[in-house]
Amino acid sequence: MAEGVTTQPITIVVVMGVSGCGKSTVAQQLARRTGWPSAEGDDFHPPANVAKMRAGIPLTDAERLPWLRAVAEWISDRARHSESAVVACSALKRSYRDVLRGGSTDIFFLHLVASRDVLLTRLRARPDHFMPAALLQSQLDTLQPLQPDEAGVILSVEEPLEEVVARAFSALAAAGRVPAPGQPP
Fold first, then answer.
1. Which end of the chain has fewer surrounding CB within 10 Å, N or C?
2. pLDDT for res 105
3. Where do the domains of the chain lie, and which CATH numbers do they carry?
């Protein structure tokens, strides 16, 4: 490595929160801005999980576990290839986040939050998605906030998308996960 040149650590950003908070959109924008690969956590659900949620039935922890393990494997694969990445995944409970971490300290959680009314409005505006607004309360009841020992930040998403993404990027830069604006990668 050339003298004076620093490299950023490998970072996996998990954009988390309940349905309707904008995980997918924020994750896509961060991936574009960083040039990192990204994944949509919903794509890892087996068809039986999707059918159950579409029917308005919350998943059990046992039903979520294979899905979480599949997302964790994607995360581990990125880390094995020394590749930073972004993934949108609800990660509602500490135990779920522990599965995603898989012992890695390279994961940074961006926990997106909004009022129940904002979330309901957003969920009702996307009728083609398998996650109905009727399941929002079960997700809110399941949600466990980030703990002090979990790397991450909580961000309100009740502002324009550009501001949310800028604050997310600033939080990543402050945590040393991406270069600060004007600094070399």
1. N
2. 63
3. 12-174 (3.40.50.300)
